[in-house]
Amino acid sequence: MGSFPRPVPTGLLGADDPPPVGLHNDEASSPFLIICDHAGNAVPAVLAGLGLPQSELDRHIGIDIGILGVSMALSDRLQAPLIFQRYSRLVAECNRRLDSPSFMTPISDGTPVPANQDPTADDRQARIREIVEPYHTAISTHIDHKLAAGQPLILVSMHSFTPSLRAAPAPRPWHVGLCYHDNRQFSDLVLTELAHQRDLVIGRNEPYGVNMAEDYSVPVHGEERRLPYVEFEIRQDLIADASGQVTWAERLAPVLKAACAHFGVEAGR
Predict the structure, then answer these.
(1) Rounded to 5°, angle at Cα 5 from 76 and 100
(2) pTM of the model
(3) Domain 2-263: what homologous superfamily?
(4) β-strands 21-24, 82-85: how paired?
(5) Rounded Cα–Cα distance for residues 108 and 97 (Å)
(6) What is the β-pairing status of strands 229-235 and 176-179?
(7) Which Gene3D superfamilies match (predicted)?
(8) 12, 25, 177, 4: which is closest to 104 by C-alpha?
(9) What single string gives the DSSP state of each residue in 37-104?
(10) One digit per residue, pLDDT tens: the chain, 269 residues?
């Protein structure tokens, strides 16, 4: 597993902090590019855990539980590059536009985030420069290289969702949801393939859809570039352990390959 070069330290990321961008199978030649915005819950040491106990960083407000394991196993099965973010969404929400109120959210699912209550302009810019920009630059660079070489590319965005919100308790029945906006041709093919798995409760823009005004990854890298894409949301209790993560990778890999074939692109081995 590789990493993009660490940004030049400017007071946020120190020598012992991990680089923000993680890479897995980054030299693989599959047409799929897997991205994972909320893979980790690291916090720069200088931010002192954002003033939160580790138990809060470990729940869904700090990380998409289980999704990195699914993404890595899926990357291996598809022989597809995976680009993932190591820092918590509470440090900087990489799937939000910079002007979104939840980009550095002061409260998440009922939990106040002390370090986000009144951040300075310098703090905000450091989080953008050292955490957000390297991640999206890695994604854009990969896409640019593939398109410049005339090679097909299908974006696969991986997320997970909590079975119930603490601030608004209610069961969320979907096992997996797909999120999409106007450019839904590939997502529709994936939905058709998933429908063959009759034990699944499938959400269509449930529990979330694509918010073009506030979201970033799919709107910018998928919709605005007119790339085929699919965005998955998997319920976290199904992928909380390694066994569940492998099971879901094994569910999704043939689905993606079949959808790719129907789309007219060779998925590789």
Answers:
(1) 85
(2) 0.95
(3) Zn-dependent exopeptidases (3.40.630.40)
(4) antiparallel
(5) 17
(6) antiparallel
(7) Zn-dependent exopeptidases
(8) 12
(9) TT---B--GGGGGGG--HHHHHSTTTS-TTHHHHHHHHHHHHT--EEEE-B-TTT--TTB-TTSTTTT
(10) 455 554 455 579 999 999 999 999 999 989 999 999 999 999 999 999 999 999 999 999 999 999 999 999 999 999 999 999 999 999 999 999 999 999 999 999 999 999 999 999 999 999 999 999 999 999 999 999 999 999 999 999 999 999 999 988 999 999 999 999 999 999 999 999 999 999 999 999 999 999 999 999 999 999 999 999 999 999 999 999 999 999 999 999 999 999 999 998 877 65
Name the amino acid, one letter, at 16: D
Amino acid identity at 107: I
Q: What is the CA radius of gyration of the chain?
A: 18
- Give the torsion through C-alpha atoms of 42, 45, 47, 52, to 10 deg: 60
What is the Cα–Cα distance from 242 to 245, expressed in whole angstroms?
A: 5
> Alpha-carbon distance 153 to 265, whole Å?
9
Residue by residue, DSSP assigns 97-129 as -TTSTTTT-SEETTEE-GGGSS--HHHHHHHII
Q: Kindly state the tokens that stand for 87.
A: 């820092």
